[in-house]
Write the structure tokens for this entry.
Amino acid sequence: MKSSLVAFAVALGMIGAARAADAPTNAALIEDIVVGNHILYDQAVVDGFGHLSGRNPQNAGHFFMARAVAPGLVTADDIMEFDLDGKAIDARGRRPYVERFIHAEVYRARPDVMAVVHSHSPGVLPFGVSQTPLRAMVMTGSFLGDGAPVFDAAAAGGTFGFLINTPELGKALAKTLGNGTVVLMRAHGDTVVGRGVRQAVSNAIYTEIAARLEMQALSLGSHITWLSPQEIKNQETVANSPNITGGGDRTWDMWKAQAERHSR
Amino acid sequence: MTDPALGELLADLVAANHVLYDQQVLDGLGHVSVRDPRDPQRFLMARALAPGLVAADDILTFDLDGKAVEATRHAVYIERFIHAEIYRSRGDANAVVHSHSPAVIPFGVTTKPMQPVSGTAAFLALGVPVFEIRDLVAASDLLISTAELGKALARTLGSGAVALLRGHGNVVVGSELREVVSRAIYTEINARLQMQAIAIGGPINYVSADEAAAIGRMGATRGREGLQRSWAMWREQAERHRR
């Protein structure tokens, strides 16, 4: 709702007037994208591959993401702006990620999404190639609901490994994601969304943790009590309220401090 | 706060936060507290902050209703009732850790009980009950956010050292701060080792209740030396990793 208002205002040339007082400036957003890349690397969600983007709060039809570089090495100068066709606004010779269509098409399909993480999150991989759903078992992974959907690029007509290298594959992926937070990608990885960069990063980290914990619980070979639909719904309220658990700055500050320490 | 013994306890509480984070028992969430030596109806715990970032200035004093004794402009942990109600019901508990200690989670959501596979976690032989919040609230957000839920958790814990919270984490108690830190760390280690023992297959020869009792007696006489040895190492390592 808010983002469509912003888009309308942008069309009228009212960018400055339409900007909500509490909306982060682009500089703050770009800083969070840089730090988020370093955190995801430090937490071993991404390796040399994977990417994090944030929607432009002043123009819902644009998003920011690094040029094709390892996430652990991203700096502010690497951050490019793209439209929802995956076209760079001001490339200045910088080469973009082949899979930018993941981000573009998720932003197009989901106005509520303000940030996207795509990774090869290792603990998650087994759930993309087996019949066992990755689902909400622990509080911090409640957004997995009754099971994250699995997207198969090969079945969707992909011919470039398992890469999402066209708008069509991006659209098909976004369709499988639906209204969810996480979509698994067979033999490839996953894509995780959030209402902001910090929440998407947190969701990506806790998806990896949830996957490891579910594998361990399955290995104990006894009945598992999953979160109930109502518990999942109540946790969503908690996760979207500031300074309680997920989504708050409490954990972000810690991840940031640790990533900075490790990169010295 | 001029009492030198209290100053040392506050420094230990800050260090306990850093050690439990460094040992990956706590992440951005979770908390550690210690009973106030000046008043057993009070306890000391950080304001709502990631444990790895806690400094001495962040430590607040709470009463057993979970109220901060001095008004604070900072947010406090929602789940402080875990600590308050355990201190109320357990006179022998002088330190409490609540964590999402990862390896322990699978035992909270399955019917497989946690049992000690190593003498370092013999205290688990007291039994590790699982707290099911659905027994009280059919559709909760899983958080121990009221005194009633804190009391129910304390009842489930009983006289044990560790209780698991289904789909959430665990709570560990000790007679002193350094002991609860050690117990929380060895609870996490035991969970990993027990899962590995189960994965190997076949019957498991767990530490028996008698063996655990003997280790408990040994701990009462010679245990402090071992505790100080480990504490010095954990603390040094956590400080080194912070530099």
Observations:
- Residues 209-242 of chain B form the longest helix (34 residues).
